[in-house]
Write a structure and sequence with these properties.
single chain, alpha/beta, globular
Protein backbone atom coordinates (compact mmCIF):
# COMPACT_ATOMS: atom_id res chain seq x y z
CA UNK A 1 0.00 0.00 0.00
CA UNK A 2 1.33 3.41 -0.92
CA UNK A 3 1.83 5.96 1.83
CA UNK A 4 2.79 9.61 1.98
CA UNK A 5 4.52 9.13 5.32
CA UNK A 6 8.26 9.66 5.61
CA UNK A 7 10.27 6.52 6.26
CA UNK A 8 13.82 6.11 7.50
CA UNK A 9 15.51 2.74 7.11
CA UNK A 10 18.19 3.84 9.59
CA UNK A 11 15.54 4.60 12.22
CA UNK A 12 14.20 1.06 11.89
CA UNK A 13 17.69 -0.41 12.17
CA UNK A 14 18.79 1.49 15.27
CA UNK A 15 15.58 1.85 17.28
CA UNK A 16 15.99 -1.34 19.32
CA UNK A 17 19.62 -0.65 20.21
CA UNK A 18 18.72 2.87 21.34
CA UNK A 19 15.76 1.59 23.35
CA UNK A 20 18.02 -0.77 25.30
CA UNK A 21 20.11 2.20 26.43
CA UNK A 22 17.10 4.40 27.22
CA UNK A 23 15.75 1.66 29.50
CA UNK A 24 18.76 2.23 31.77
CA UNK A 25 17.74 5.83 32.44
CA UNK A 26 14.00 6.32 32.00
CA UNK A 27 11.64 5.18 34.74
CA UNK A 28 8.31 6.48 35.96
CA UNK A 29 6.27 9.46 34.87
CA UNK A 30 8.26 11.87 32.72
CA UNK A 31 7.68 14.52 30.07
CA UNK A 32 10.06 14.18 27.15
CA UNK A 33 10.71 16.52 24.24
CA UNK A 34 12.05 14.94 21.07
CA UNK A 35 13.89 17.48 18.94
CA UNK A 36 13.88 16.73 15.22
CA UNK A 37 11.35 13.90 15.19
CA UNK A 38 11.63 13.46 11.41
CA UNK A 39 9.68 10.36 10.39
CA UNK A 40 8.48 9.87 14.02
CA UNK A 41 9.50 6.20 13.87
CA UNK A 42 11.60 6.57 17.03
CA UNK A 43 8.80 8.44 18.78
CA UNK A 44 6.28 5.69 18.03
CA UNK A 45 8.63 2.89 19.06
CA UNK A 46 9.77 4.50 22.31
CA UNK A 47 6.41 5.96 23.41
CA UNK A 48 4.85 2.55 22.87
CA UNK A 49 7.34 1.11 25.38
CA UNK A 50 7.51 3.94 27.94
CA UNK A 51 3.79 4.16 28.72
CA UNK A 52 4.30 6.62 31.60
CA UNK A 53 6.33 9.05 29.51
CA UNK A 54 4.50 11.86 27.74
CA UNK A 55 6.54 11.90 24.53
CA UNK A 56 6.24 15.23 22.69
CA UNK A 57 7.42 15.31 19.09
CA UNK A 58 8.82 18.47 17.50
CA UNK A 59 10.42 19.53 14.23
CA UNK A 60 10.54 22.31 11.68
CA UNK A 61 7.11 23.02 10.23
CA UNK A 62 7.77 21.41 6.84
CA UNK A 63 8.21 18.01 8.52
CA UNK A 64 4.91 18.20 10.42
CA UNK A 65 2.66 16.52 7.82
CA UNK A 66 4.63 13.26 7.94
CA UNK A 67 4.66 13.28 11.75
CA UNK A 68 0.95 14.06 11.94
CA UNK A 69 0.15 11.21 9.55
CA UNK A 70 2.13 8.67 11.53
CA UNK A 71 0.73 9.77 14.92
CA UNK A 72 -2.80 9.67 13.54
CA UNK A 73 -2.22 6.15 12.30
CA UNK A 74 -0.83 4.71 15.55
CA UNK A 75 -2.97 6.71 18.04
CA UNK A 76 -0.73 6.19 21.06
CA UNK A 77 -2.22 8.14 23.97
CA UNK A 78 1.11 9.27 25.47
CA UNK A 79 2.49 10.43 22.12
CA UNK A 80 1.90 14.10 21.30
CA UNK A 81 2.72 16.88 18.85
CA UNK A 82 4.22 17.77 16.57
CA UNK A 83 5.29 21.08 18.08
CA UNK A 84 7.05 23.70 15.97
CA UNK A 85 10.72 23.94 16.89
CA UNK A 86 13.34 25.41 14.61
CA UNK A 87 16.60 25.59 16.54
CA UNK A 88 17.90 29.14 16.76
CA UNK A 89 14.42 30.57 16.17
CA UNK A 90 11.88 28.89 18.46
CA UNK A 91 11.78 28.28 22.20
CA UNK A 92 10.73 24.96 23.72
CA UNK A 93 7.00 24.23 23.61
CA UNK A 94 5.05 25.27 26.69
CA UNK A 95 5.36 23.26 29.87
CA UNK A 96 8.26 21.71 31.74
CA UNK A 97 10.32 18.84 30.35
CA UNK A 98 12.64 16.60 32.35
CA UNK A 99 13.92 14.58 29.38
CA UNK A 100 15.16 15.61 25.92
CA UNK A 101 15.96 13.19 23.11
CA UNK A 102 17.41 14.01 19.72
CA UNK A 103 18.79 11.69 17.04
CA UNK A 104 20.87 12.46 13.96
CA UNK A 105 20.37 16.20 14.21
CA UNK A 106 23.70 17.73 15.27
CA UNK A 107 25.44 16.85 12.02
CA UNK A 108 22.54 18.25 9.97
CA UNK A 109 22.46 21.58 11.79
CA UNK A 110 25.22 24.17 11.50
CA UNK A 111 27.60 24.54 14.44
CA UNK A 112 25.93 27.87 15.25
CA UNK A 113 22.60 26.05 15.50
CA UNK A 114 24.24 23.39 17.66
CA UNK A 115 25.36 26.07 20.09
CA UNK A 116 21.87 27.59 20.08
CA UNK A 117 20.44 24.18 20.98
CA UNK A 118 22.90 23.67 23.85
CA UNK A 119 22.09 27.13 25.18
CA UNK A 120 18.37 26.39 25.03
CA UNK A 121 18.87 23.11 26.91
CA UNK A 122 20.81 24.93 29.61
CA UNK A 123 18.11 27.58 29.91
CA UNK A 124 15.06 25.33 29.97
CA UNK A 125 16.06 22.16 31.80
CA UNK A 126 16.09 21.94 35.58
CA UNK A 127 18.38 19.99 37.90
CA UNK A 128 18.27 16.26 37.31
CA UNK A 129 16.87 16.50 33.79
CA UNK A 130 18.53 14.28 31.23
CA UNK A 131 19.52 14.78 27.59
CA UNK A 132 20.07 11.93 25.11
CA UNK A 133 21.96 12.74 21.91
CA UNK A 134 22.31 10.01 19.28
CA UNK A 135 24.47 10.10 16.16
CA UNK A 136 28.03 9.87 14.84
CA UNK A 137 30.85 11.82 16.47
CA UNK A 138 34.52 12.45 15.81
CA UNK A 139 37.11 12.01 18.56
CA UNK A 140 40.24 14.12 18.71
CA UNK A 141 39.16 15.58 15.39
CA UNK A 142 39.35 12.19 13.67
CA UNK A 143 36.64 10.13 12.02
CA UNK A 144 35.95 6.79 13.69
CA UNK A 145 35.47 4.95 10.39
CA UNK A 146 35.86 5.42 6.62
CA UNK A 147 32.07 5.31 6.28
CA UNK A 148 31.73 8.25 8.66
CA UNK A 149 34.22 10.20 6.55
CA UNK A 150 32.18 9.42 3.45
CA UNK A 151 29.02 10.46 5.25
CA UNK A 152 30.63 13.75 6.31
CA UNK A 153 31.66 14.44 2.71
CA UNK A 154 28.07 13.81 1.60
CA UNK A 155 26.67 16.13 4.28
CA UNK A 156 28.92 18.93 3.10
CA UNK A 157 27.62 18.56 -0.45
CA UNK A 158 24.18 19.37 0.97
CA UNK A 159 25.36 22.18 3.24
CA UNK A 160 28.99 23.15 3.68
CA UNK A 161 28.25 24.06 7.32
CA UNK A 162 26.88 20.61 8.15
CA UNK A 163 29.12 17.76 9.27
CA UNK A 164 29.90 15.25 11.99
CA UNK A 165 30.65 17.06 15.25
CA UNK A 166 33.61 16.57 17.58
CA UNK A 167 32.65 14.83 20.81
CA UNK A 168 35.02 17.06 22.78
CA UNK A 169 33.37 20.24 21.48
CA UNK A 170 29.90 18.99 22.41
CA UNK A 171 30.97 17.89 25.89
CA UNK A 172 32.79 21.18 26.53
CA UNK A 173 29.78 23.35 25.70
CA UNK A 174 27.32 21.10 27.52
CA UNK A 175 29.58 21.14 30.59
CA UNK A 176 29.82 24.92 30.45
CA UNK A 177 26.01 25.01 30.29
CA UNK A 178 25.63 23.10 33.53
CA UNK A 179 25.49 19.49 32.34
CA UNK A 180 27.57 16.45 33.28
CA UNK A 181 28.30 13.64 30.88
CA UNK A 182 26.86 10.50 32.46
CA UNK A 183 28.05 8.10 29.77
CA UNK A 184 29.14 7.93 26.16
CA UNK A 185 27.52 4.74 24.86
CA UNK A 186 29.01 2.95 21.86
CA UNK A 187 26.27 2.05 19.39
CA UNK A 188 26.09 0.00 16.18
CA UNK A 189 27.20 1.39 12.81
CA UNK A 190 29.79 3.79 14.29
CA UNK A 191 27.24 5.84 16.20
CA UNK A 192 27.15 6.96 19.83
CA UNK A 193 24.49 7.81 22.38
CA UNK A 194 25.61 10.60 24.70
CA UNK A 195 23.77 10.90 28.02
CA UNK A 196 23.95 14.16 29.97
CA UNK A 197 22.41 15.16 33.31
CA UNK A 198 21.59 18.75 34.30
CA UNK A 199 23.40 19.80 37.46
CA UNK A 200 22.16 22.32 40.02
CA UNK A 201 22.13 25.94 38.89
CA UNK A 202 25.13 27.87 40.21
CA UNK A 203 24.70 31.43 41.39
CA UNK A 204 27.12 33.93 39.92
CA UNK A 205 29.56 35.48 42.39
Amino acid sequence: METTEAYSAAADRNKDAILEVLKEYIQGEKRLLEIGSGSAQHAVHFANYFHEVNWVTSDVIENHPAIQARLKEVRIKNLHGPEKLKVGVDDFPQGAFNLVYTANTLHIMTWKENKSLFKLLSKRLREGSMVFIYGPFNYGGDFTSPSNKEFDDFLKTQNVKSGIRNFEDVEKIMTAGGFKLVKDHEMPANNRLLVFRRLAFQKSL
